[in-house]
Write a structure and sequence with these properties.
This protein is α/β, with parallel strands linked by helices and about 280 residues long. The chain has two domains: about 5-150, Rossmann fold (3-Layer(aba) Sandwich), CATH 3.40.50; about 155-280, Hypothetical Protein Tm841, Chain: A,domain 3, CATH 3.30.1180. The protein is about 40% helix and about 25% strand. The protein contains ten helices and 13 strands. The chain has helices spanning about 45-55, 65-80, 95-105, 120-135, 140-155, 165-170, 175-185, 205-220, 235-250, 260-265; strands spanning about 5-10, 25, 30-35, 35-40, 60, 80-85, 110-115, 155-160, 185-190, 195-200, 225-230, 250-260, 270-280. The chain has a six-stranded mixed beta sheet with strand order 10-9-8-13-11-12, with helices on both faces. Strand 6 (about 80-85), helix 3 (about 95-105) and strand 7 (about 110-115) form a beta-alpha-beta unit. Helix 2 packs across helix 3. The longest helix is centred in the middle third of the chain and has 16 residues, at about 120-135.
């Protein structure tokens, strides 16, 4: 049994089957609706979130508190395990900061916090790589070196059909959202240096999906991939995209995942994305 345990946050959007038999746990992000707070994946799932959208609710999110992390870290450390927390980008969330505060309450080296510098299954793929390395008996320095390598080679793209939810959550200005709506502009988001940015702009939803697909195809020309296709409430589109990609590139391991509720809050239903990394960096 591994003496190293990996923790990630629910924004990583990991499908349950991806963590089977791995020393990997998920700490939930908080979702606020009016005066109520819900733990993602425990008190509220994505389907319930979409229903709240349809009812006109305006959910918000907050990162796990230092106390939340303490509750996860404490029993693991007491079992003699060392913990690596692979978390959503510190430039977009306070999750890493909360985890670092909690980590300081334990002996030096008991808990290591790693900033994935990305989000969604970009974080998820890094957590999987770390957990597989831990299961294989690698040391903390070896796993941390692996994480840096996977982080540097993981790409994340997300096609967004409307900017109205990003505007409501404050991620873009209302003026930009209004102009995009008038011009029928669709965007493909990506992460650069830990910040979510607009990677491409298109004039139709199909062009946005094509741009997303092209990013994966370019990467797949060079090497087999570990690929995750993820979505918000469009499972058919996600399956179709995965099938097209599977026919054109070598997928050593693949996942289809629903984007976490804590991220769907910001972009709304209808989003479609992909995260991918060269397969040789994983234990396949």
């Amino acid at each position: 049994m591994s003496k190293i345990h990996v923790l990630t946050d629910s924004a990583a959007s990991l499908p349950r089957e991806a963590i089977n038999d791995l020393p990997l746990s998920i700490i939930p992000t908080w979702i606020q609706v009016a005066d109520q707070s819900f733990r993602e994946g425990i008190d509220l799932d994505s389907a319930q979130l979409y229903e709240l959208f349809r009812q006109g609710a305006f959910p918000t999110t907050s990162q796990p508190s230092p106390g939340d992390f303490l509750e996860f870290f404490k029993p693991l450390v007491e079992q003699g395990k060392r913990v690596i927390a692979v978390l959503v980008t510190a430039k977009g969330s306070g999750t890493c900061a909360s985890a670092s505060i909690a980590a300081e309450m334990f002996p030096e080296g008991a808990v290591t916090v790693f900033d994935s510098a990305t989000t969604a299954m970009g974080t998820g793929l890094q957590a999987i790589a770390a957990a597989e390395a831990a299961r294989a008996g690698q040391s903390i320095p070896e796993i941390m070196a692996k994480l840096v390598e996977v982080r540097e080679n993981t790409k994340v793209h997300l096609a967004v059909p409307t900017l109205q939810y990003l505007s409501r959550s404050g991620r873009i200005s209302q003026a930009k959202a209004l102009l995009a709506g008038i011009l029928n502009i669709k965007v493909v988001l990506t992460t650069e240096n830990g910040i979510v940015v607009v990677g491409e702009k298109t004039r139709s939803w199909q062009n946005a999906i094509n741009a997303l697909e092209a990013q994966v195809l370019r990467a797949g020309e060079k090497t087999p991939l570990v690929l995750a296709v993820y979505h918000t409430d469009v499972p058919t589109l996600a399956r179709e995209l995965y099938q097209r990609l599977d026919a054109k590139v070598s997928i050593a391991r693949g996942y289809i995942s629903e984007l976490s509720a804590s991220l769907a809050v910001h972009g709304g239903p209808g989003m479609l994305g992909a995260a991918f990394c060269p397969a040789h960096l994983f234990a396949i």
